[in-house]
Every structure is written in structure tokens, then in C-alpha cells.
């Protein structure tokens, strides 16, 4: 693929100039960033006790679509309005993916899945209100956002410069290659388990989203212990894949550094917030890093499937461009 065709230069679609790959990549990044922002604002709704600031859905109470003039009502209504920003960005990303030439079916599918996930997420959010913040429904609401973030991460990876060229997959006959793939997939799965158990801890703790909403009935200390066990399993697996990437000189080693650093940060924040009684700011940081960990775990899998070995490179040489995941 020539550079001019990869950027969509000079070509037209339905009378409009087709977007460049850089343009599509920019919208993909905006799509990912907006969904990560939703995690933080959703967390703010919960930790401020504003989950029922709008006690009905899709209205905001008393048959109105405007918020009651109260602290909790404005916070909850503001989070709902963020959905419209997400819809606008997701639609713009989808249009860019559909107009991009040459046709990239994977980018189209990813943009479509992310765009469809936004209204589905809004409906699940409405169900959380109608069930008076049932902790299991709230957990599902959060986990669906993580699914969207993982898909949006893939789209960002896919649309980076040179990412849609679809080179041949790397050979699977190497022990190092197979081991890196298995470790990356295992890290991804354990990351999901860890995040899920984090929602169980939240469902048993004090930040219910509203002072009158019920909890899941589990003991916070027991739920926290399960979550901590999963975290330490993830730490061990992350160290293993980092060690493999460094020893085997894999191009994915930079991704393992970032994931390891995020995991350390998350562990420190988690222990400090637990010891200090779950202050609001630390809870929000913990949720933000959870979203970033999902980004990192997704990138590890994408790199493991496509990142070439770089054992033949000398120290200090630039790493080769990493081809896209298919």
C-alpha cells in the first residue's frame, strides 16, 4: 500500500474527500478518551451520593427532562448529558471509518460496535436508576463501559500509522511467540476478573450512589480480600510477561512497561484508599487507572499477536513499526 493510498489522499467517496488515516485515528483516540472520561464522571456520581439525583429515567423526575435544582440532581444530570457527547464522537468516528479508503472492514466493525454500545450503555444506566441502584446492575453498567473501552482501544491500535496494511501474521511455531500470546491473554482475562471483583467490593462498601440504596450483602473485608488476591495474581503474571519481553527482546516490551507501571500505581492507590477510609479523590483515581489498565491489557494482547521479535536489534536501535492486529 502506497503512502498516498493509505492516507486516502486525493480520493473521493460520494462526492466528499475521503478522510486520511490520521483523521480516523484522531477520532478513534477521542472515542476512547470520552469513554474513559465516562468512567470518572460515573464514579463521581456514585461517590457523591448522586446516583438518584434524577430519580426517574429517561426523565429526571416529575415528568421533566431537566434536573431538579439540587446538588445531586445537577451531578447526575450532567453525567447523563455526557452520553450525548459520547454519541456525537462515536457517530463521527463511525462515519470516518465508513468513509475511509481503502475499505478496512475491521475498523468499520469496531467503530460500529463502539457506536452501538453507547445507547446500550444508556439503557443499562436507566435500569440502574429504575432498580434504585441495585449493586449488581451497577456493576454490569461499569463492566459494559470496560467492554467499550477495550474495543475502542483496538480501534486506536488498528488505525495508527501503517496499522491497516494487514501484513501476514507472525509465525506461531516459536516457543517465545506462543508463550507471549498465552501470557498476554491470561493477563487480559485476570484483568477482567480483577475489575469485576472490584465492582463486588464497591457493591459491599459505603459508596452506594445513594444513602438509601441497598448493598450486595457481602462483607467488605471478604470481598476486598478476593479482589486483592486477584490483584496479586495479576502482578505475578505481569512480571512474567515483562521478564519474557525483556529477555527475548520483544517489541512489546514497552507495552509491558506501561502496564506494569499502571498496575503498581493502581496497587498503591488501592491500599492507600482502603487504609484512609475511601476518600472521594482516591476512589476516582482508582477508577481512572482501572480504565487505563483495561487499555493496557488490550494492547498487550494486540502486541503479542502482531509484535515481531527484536533480538537481532542492537541496544539503542529504534524498534520496528508494529503491524496491526487483524
From TrEMBL:
* Spans through the membrane: 21-45, 81-98, 110-130, 136-157, 178-198, 230-248, 255-274, 280-302
Keywords for the protein's UniProt record, in alphabetical order: Cell membrane, Disulfide bond, Heme biosynthesis, Iron, Membrane, Metal-binding, Oxidoreductase, Transmembrane, Transmembrane helix
Query: Where does it localize?
Result: Membrane
The UniProt entry lists the main location of this chain as membrane
Q: Which GO terms describe its cellular component?
A: membrane
Per the UniProt entry, what are the Gene Ontology biological process annotations, in alphabetical order? heme A biosynthetic process
Question: Pathway involvement?
Answer: Porphyrin-containing compound metabolism
What membrane topology term does the record carry? Multi-pass membrane protein
Q: Which residues form the signal peptide?
A: none
A single MF term (Gene Ontology): oxidoreductase activity
Going by the entry's taxonomy, the superkingdom of the source organism is recorded as: Bacteria
PANTHER family under this entry? HEME A SYNTHASE
* Protein name per the record: Putative cytochrome oxidase assembly protein
Q: What is the lineage of its organism?
A: Bacteria, Bacillati, Actinomycetota, Actinomycetes, Mycobacteriales
Amino acid at each position: 500500500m502506497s503512502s498516498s493510498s493509505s492516507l486516502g489522499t486525493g480520493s473521493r467517496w460520494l462526492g466528499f474527500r475521503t478522510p486520511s488515516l490520521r483523521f480516523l485515528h484522531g477520532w478513534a483516540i477521542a472515542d476512547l478518551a470520552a469513554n474513559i472520561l465516562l468512567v470518572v464522571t460515573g464514579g463521581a456520581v456514585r461517590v457523591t451520593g448522586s446516583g438518584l439525583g434524577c430519580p426517574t429515567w429517561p426523565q429526571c423526575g416529575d415528568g421533566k427532562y431537566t434536573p431538579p435544582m439540587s446538588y445531586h440532581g445537577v451531578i447526575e444530570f450532567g453525567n447523563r448529558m455526557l452520553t450525548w457527547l459520547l454519541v456525537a464522537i462515536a457517530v463521527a468516528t463511525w462515519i470516518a471509518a465508513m468513509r475511509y479508503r481503502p475499505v478496512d472492514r475491521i475498523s468499520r466493525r469496531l467503530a460500529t460496535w463502539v457506536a452501538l454500545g453507547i445507547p446500550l450503555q444508556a439503557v443499562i444506566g436507566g435500569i440502574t436508576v429504575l432498580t434504585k441502584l441495585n449493586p449488581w446492575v451497577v456493576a454490569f453498567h461499569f463492566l459494559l463501559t470496560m467492554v467499550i473501552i477495550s474495543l475502542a482501544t483496538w480501534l486506536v491500535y488498528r488505525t495508527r500509522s501503517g496499522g491497516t496494511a494487514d501484513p501476514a501474521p507472525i509465525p506461531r511455531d516459536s516457543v517465545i511467540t506462543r508463550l507471549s500470546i498465552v501470557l498476554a491473554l491470561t493477563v487480559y482475562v485476570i484483568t477482567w476478573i480483577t475489575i469485576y471483583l472490584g465492582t463486588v467490593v464497591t457493591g459491599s462498601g459505603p459508596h452506594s450512589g445513594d444513602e438509601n440504596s441497598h448493598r450486595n450483602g457481602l462483607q467488605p473485608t471478604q470481598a476486598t480480600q478476593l479482589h486483592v488476591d486477584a490483584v496479586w495474581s495479576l502482578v505475578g503474571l505481569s512480571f512474567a510477561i515483562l521478564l519474557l519481553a525483556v529477555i527475548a527482546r520483544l517489541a512489546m516490551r514497552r507495552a509491558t512497561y506501561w502496564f506494569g507501571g499502571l498496575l503498581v500505581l493502581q496497587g498503591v492507590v488501592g491500599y492507600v484508599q482502603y487504609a484512609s477510609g475511601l476518600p472521594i479523590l482516591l476512589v476516582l483515581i482508582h477508577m481512572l487507572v482501572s480504565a487505563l489498565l483495561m487499555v493496557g491489557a488490550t494492547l498487550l494482547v494486540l502486541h503479542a499477536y502482531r509484535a515481531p521479535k527484536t533480538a537481532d536489534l542492537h541496544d539503542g536501535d529504534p524498534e520496528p513499526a508494529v503491524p496491526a492486529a487483524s
